[in-house]
Amino acid sequence: MHYRISSTNPSSRLLEVDFLLTAISSSTVDLQLPAWRPGRYEIQNFAKNIQRFEIFDQTGKPLAFQKITKDRWRVQTEGVSELVARYTYYSNTINAGTSYADDRLLYINPVNLCLYADGRLLEPCTLELAIPDDWQVACGMQQTASNILTAADFYELVDCPLIASPDLQHLAYEIDETRFHVWINGNIKPDWERIRHDFRRFSETQIRLFGEFPEKDYHFLTLILPTAHYHGVEHRNSTMLVLGPNDEGEGLYTDLLGVSSHELFHTWNVIRIRPTELLPYDFTRETYFTTCFVAEGVTTYYGDLLLRRADVFTDAAYWKELQVLLKRHFEPSGRSFQSLTESSWDLWLDGYDKGVPNRKVSVYYKGATVALILDLHIRRKWNHARSLDDVMRLMWERFGKPFVGYTLEEYRAITEEVAGEPLDWYYERCIFGNEPLEPLLNEYLAFVGLQLEYDATDLVSAPSVLLVQHEDAAGLQNRYQWLGVQS
Question: What is the pTM of this model?
Answer without folding.
Answer: 0.95
